[in-house]
Amino acid sequence: MQQNLANTAKTAVSTAVKDQFYQFYLGEHQNPTCRQLHFLGSSLGLLGATQAIRKRSVKPLIKGIVAGYACAWVGHFFFEHNKPASFKQPLKSFVSDFRMFGDIVRGQLSLTDPSQDRVHIKRLDQAAG
Fold this sequence. Notes:
The protein is built from five helices and no strands. By secondary structure, the protein is mainly α. The N and C termini lie far apart (33 Å).
């Protein structure tokens, strides 16, 4: 019983940390062009992964990853004017990028107007209150 409670608490903390990072991640992706480039980059990454499986070759996967990161970094450096989160938190950033991709596909995040997002950013001062 105690083991189950400990696992439940650990899962809850892990989920809260992931959600907190995702809130930060969304805050770093408010420029529509940056979001569009991330969406394109994630799509190219998925296409590369699909082609790698289909062709049984690692080359398309590498090309997809390079193209995906190139799109994202152009979005950050030239449109969002910030450093990609992947520089400091590569794994959390990678997971959050595909979470954002999924939210865009489901219509929860807008590619043209972040004020239309259905997933809202909780600022640290709002979360504390």
